[in-house]
């Protein structure tokens, strides 16, 4: 139905563009009637009648155009709503890893602003474009009816202007619009990430380096805007001159042609009509230019929304096989995975088993595939080859809700919502009582945090300058995981931002969180995983070594080398007063 409202709006806009041309004919008739009886202008007839006809058609044209906009607005609002709804519903079914590759600033801009651009185009620009296309046809008829010679002369600037307009709005312009939107997305995304990172920037005293990515995004946009403006400088000037140069041709032509006119009065009235009517050429050509640009933006916006809708959703299992998954042991069977859009293999032929109730640690050089391997367990991405099972059941056959209920996460970058600390903790288990939340918070060593907050556990994070340090935020995240009480726990560099005091408290919270759980830890601080039941050493996406801490030291391989380097880094001390490294 709303599609037909758009069609109706465009038709009404076309009719309106014809109706508003009628007053120009009335002006011509008034000029002709006056010129016929000069110098006795008072003897001219029907002037009042033509005046009312002009007013009537103008009012009707405005009313019809208003009706056209009503139709297109109703359709545009529904279209924009559907675009946002479809994109958001689709995003909810995408793998969680998709959001690591696409920043929130970028996604917000695509969904919000792209649908907004489409709405603006459908509501305003599309009916205007229809009118701008119908008007030249009506103009062409009127220009040829009165005096085809002056009509042809009036068309010369239109042809020249169309040539320069095509030069600006050709295939290169489509690519430029795409680059423009990409530059805005990058700048928007970097701005969001920079603002979110301000607490960390201040904590570590960073200055220009923290601003680097955002600054580079601004410079890329500046470079594009300057180059684009310079490239359009000449054709835009030529286009503007052309569509405004009708009088430069029309007036000399009128002076030359009036001398040979059989009926000077009629010729003069025709000439007056062309002088009054041809300025519409400038308005129409400008309208075509701006609506063509907005058409490109709308097409690009629709393509960006489609790029989200075309992302492969996380396939949900058919049947109830996964609902009978009662165990919590984890096993990788010859798992291989590459990130979408890349050829590099992130995890290659990995096989491992973590027994139920045991603790395993993933260590290795940065970029070795540790975090990627762990993220495959909760299906942040689906693997390319092999299988991952929990309790003997392939994770791809376990419904997403059931799978999430079996796993607790504590990530390196903890996300706290702008709500009370109480609600932040209870987020993992909405039905939990206040007593249960307080018990989990106590186990995570959070009582000290509440004591210094103005409203204790009910303090809203981010309000009135209330923020938590990295270590404190990690303890809130641990309380959230303890409250969830899932049988499997994934810890990814959970002590990365903790100072020594917070690290000690986090280690105490780990003991409560991991008791009788199947645990997979990712750590660079090797001291935190010495007592793990097994240590898996990953490098270049492969398991290079596995065993206990003692067994791996005896092998004198990669882990032994990493351990020695870690011990050396711990032993470094700055001599007091000398500033030398020992």
Explain the layout of strands and helices.
Layout: H1 2-19, H2 22-37, H3 47-92, H4 98-101, H5 104-146, H6 148-168, H7 171-196, H8 198-203, H9 212-243, H10 246-258, H11 264-277, H12 279-309, E1 330-338, E2 345-354, E3 359-363, H13 370-376, E4 385-390, E5 393-394, H14 400-406, E6 407-410, H15 421-426, H16 434-443, H17 447-451, H18 470-484, E7 488-492, H19 500-513, E8 518-522, E9 534-539, E10 542-547, H20 549-555, H21 558-571
Parallel strand pairs: 3-8, 3-9, 6-7, 7-8
Antiparallel strand pairs: 1-2, 1-4, 4-5, 9-10
Helix pairs in contact: 1-3, 1-5, 2-3, 2-11, 3-5, 3-12, 5-6, 5-7, 5-12, 6-9, 6-10, 7-9, 7-12, 10-11, 16-18, 18-19
Coiled coil: 170-197
Transmembrane segments: 7-30, 50-76, 129-146, 152-171, 239-259, 271-290
Protein name: ABC transporter ATP-binding protein
Model description:
- There is one protein chain.
- The chain has helices at 2-19, 22-37, 47-92, 98-101, 104-146, 148-168, 171-196, 198-203, 212-243, 246-258, 264-277, 279-309, 370-376, 400-406, 421-426, 434-443, 447-451, 470-484, 500-513, 549-555, 558-571, and strands at residues 330-338, 345-354, 359-363, 385-390, 393-394, 407-410, 488-492, 518-522, 534-539, 542-547.
- It has 582 residues and is of the alpha/beta class.
- A 6-stranded mixed β-sheet has the order 6-7-8-3-9-10, with helices on both faces.
- It is elongated.
- It starts with a helix and ends in an 11-residue tail after the last helix.
- The chain crosses the membrane at residues 7-30, 50-76, 129-146, 152-171, 239-259, 271-290.
